[in-house]
Amino acid sequence: DVKVTQSSRYLVKRTGEKVFLECVQDMDHENMFWYRQDPGLGLRLIYFSYDVKMKEKGDIPEGYSVSREKKERFSLILESASTNQTSMYLCASSLSGTGEGYTFGSGTRLTVV
Amino acid sequence: GNSVTQMEGPVTLSEEAFLTINCTYTATGYPSLFWYVQYPGEGLQLLLKATKADDKGSNKGFEATYRKETTSFHLEKGSVQVSDSAVYFCALSDRGAGSYQLTFGKGTKLSVIP
What we know:
The complex is a heterodimer of chains A (113) and B (114). Chain A has no helices and twelve strands. By secondary structure, chain A is an all-beta fold. In chain A, strands 2, 5, 6, 7, 10, 11 and 12 form a seven-stranded mixed β-sheet that branches. Chain A has a three-stranded antiparallel β-sheet with strand order 3-9-8, with no helix packed on it. Chain B is 0% helix and 52% strand. Chain B is built from no helices and twelve strands. In chain B, strands 2, 5, 6, 10, 11 and 12 form a six-stranded mixed β-sheet that branches. In chain B, strands 3-9-8-7 form a four-stranded antiparallel β-sheet, with no helix packed on it. In chain B, strands 1-4 form a two-stranded antiparallel ribbon. The chains are: A mainly beta (113), B mainly beta (114). Chains A and B meet through strand 6, strand 10 and strand 11 of A and strand 5, strand 6 and strand 10 of B.
């Protein structure tokens, strides 16, 4: 069964901490994405990557960075966590080309206190 | 640009009621259309998809037909169950514009009561 695995389901961090959210896929997908989901705002794209070592800003990249050193792994980094980054974070991957849709991980609920 | 508009929720139905969740889209090319479902505390799962006009996607009793003339992809189910309670997202992927990204609607929360 194909999978996107996010390393933590729940995470609590303190304001100012550097936070790493990890995502691994086993489907040899080229494309990977990070979203955050907040009530009333739907899914908002933070960053995405079409290939190893490539990254593109999404709609809300401020306060975040990403790393893609290997094809299967896409990490989201909160450089200095703030309370307004408390959210559900969703990772997804897809095969190049459209029509296939995304496969999502189970999500990480991050609380910054 | 591309956009997806879904009916606002929340939607509350009794078990065995008929469900319709409306979805309309704007796209510059020839989109594929998707419905995703998110159960409480989980990520999104692909529910069904359609890749060209007049295609019907179906899964788990849910159906949606790609209507190019009305730019719509409404989700329907004839008899909902409590286990269908979830958030439903409509999305499009536009091949014509060369984009690899999905554009999502804001989601519609469905609650089914016994």
